[in-house]
Amino acid sequence: MNWKGHVILGLIFGLPFISSPEQIFLVLAGALYPDLDHDVKEDIVKRGIIISGGIVLINILLYFFKKSLFNIDLFVLGVSVFLIFLIPYFSEHRTYTHTIWSLFFVSIIIGFLSYKLSFISKVFAGLISLLMVTNEVLLGKIIIYAVFVWAILDIINLNPNINGVLHYILPVAVGYYSHIVGDSLTPAGVRVFYPISNYKLRKKGGYILIIFWLIFVILFCAKNLNLIG
């Protein structure tokens, strides 16, 4: 599945759980991240490694030479972001980045980073997350889809009750989940438990994942409508 397919599928999967522009960007970030293991390593991944590695190095130097300026939160975030770029850098296509383990790890890191940056601007935080996984050319094309979905949200006026850090983590996770579903429906399938297992999730498994998503949507909507306790 190409980037357009993943963007559209991600927005479809994410629609029941989003109510703001930053969440649209986060869904798209999650939907596009797994393919950083493909032909974008030279620009997007290396750029991310250099920037996040620089943040880590600066904090290490501050710790030894200017301890009063050392920021443990910034250091931990820098290391975490560095790791989520190392995963695709050393990953062959549809291996580590297309696993359930990466889904949880990357969603938490990107979501938490956006949460921390939201004090500046929520939209800015979401956009930064999207910039992490795209280049300038792709970003311009993706924004068109984001604006279209925001117009839809403005009309239907969804208001899912998602607060705190989950407001940022859940959209990334749903977008990431949609990518795995999309690739499982292709002939090549995905090894969702790699490297523990080489079992490939194919069409039947992809349909099961869609059913799980539908069940989650129903339960989530029922919870928000106070139909269940």
From TrEMBL:
Molecular-function annotations in GO: hydrolase activity
Protein keywords: Hydrolase, Membrane, Transmembrane, Transmembrane helix
Stored Pfam families: YdjM (PF04307)
Residues passing through the membrane, by range: 45-65, 72-90, 96-115, 127-153, 165-185, 206-225
InterPro entries for this protein: YdjM-like (IPR007404)
Superkingdom of origin organism: Archaea
Annotated protein name in UniProt: Membrane-bound metal-dependent hydrolase
Biological source species: Methanocaldococcus lauensis
Lineage: Archaea, Methanobacteriati, Methanobacteriota, Methanomada group, Methanococci
